[in-house]
Write a structure and sequence with these properties.
Layout: E1 2-6, E2 9-13, H1 17-30, E3 33-41, E4 44-52, H2 53-56, E5 61-62, E6 83-85, E7 88-90, H3 93-99, H4 105-112, H5 116-120, E8 131-134, E9 137-140, H6 144-160, H7 162-169, E10 176-177, H8 189-204
Parallel strand pairs: 5-10
Antiparallel strand pairs: 1-2, 3-4, 6-7, 8-9
Helix pairs in contact: 3-4, 6-7, 6-8
Length: 209
């Protein structure tokens, strides 16, 4: 195997048929990976594979339903991830969240069955009130207790739905973000992402079963 040094580049060139076969296999399994050079001696050094670039460099994942890679779509609030919260069935987190904007129980029940963009748009045109009632308690719209409901429904989702939980854990330690064209005032993207990452850590540590 011949080795060439260039500015910021280390070039490997197999010479024998055996080296070409080994190099081809290594190339196929390591394309796009990041390597760490441990040069502890003038006599030589070693390159250590620390994984794919996105994971090794901690590149953030923007969890937006119609933009994120399919493997991570179940993390999104819009995903079809049936869950039960306080004895009521919801098709998605979004169906729960948008349903809170309706005062009538029959409207909330209707929206609870929705997911995807249909759920997201369910309350379009619905006037936003300063407060709402849920489960016989009154919440200030956008207040701490209102936002705590999002954490509660997300916890229910990731503990009850195996696919969503696996998708969340598959993000490893990469930062999660939620950047949309227009940020929410009641549940800003930074807060939404923080809820996901906190739950990821809690599930991984066994604090959430």
């Amino acid at each position: 195997m011949r080795v060439f040094f260039k500015s910021k580049v280390l070039v490997l060139a197999p010479e024998t048929e055996c080296e070409r076969e080994a190099f081809a296999a290594w190339r196929a399994s390591s394309a796009g990976h990041v390597f760490h050079f441990a040069g502890e001696s003038e006599e030589g050094g070693a390159l250590f594979d620390i994984g794919p670039r996105a994971e090794a460099c901690g590149q953030p994942i923007n969890v937006v339903f119609d933009q994120v890679e399919p493997q991570w779509q179940p993390i999104s609030n819009l995903a079809y991830t049936p869950l039960v919260l306080r004895g009521r069935l919801y098709a998605s987190v979004e169906g729960f969240w948008q349903g809170l904007k309706f005062p009538a129980s029959e409207d909330r029940a209707r929206v609870a069955e929705l997911f995807g963009l249909e759920a997201k748009r369910a309350a379009n045109g619905q006037p936003q009130c300063e407060s709402f009632v849920y489960d016989r308690a009154t919440y200030a719209t956008g207040g701490p207790e209102h936002r705590a409901l999002m954490a509660e429904v997300c916890r229910a989702k990731f503990t009850q739905h195996a696919g969503a939980r696996e998708a969340l854990l598959s993000t490893g330690s990469r930062p999660l973000i939620h950047r949309t064209r227009r940020d929410s005032r009641t549940i800003p993207g930074a807060l939404m992402a923080d809820i996901w990452m906190r739950l990821r850590e809690q599930i991984r540590d066994g604090r959430v079963a």
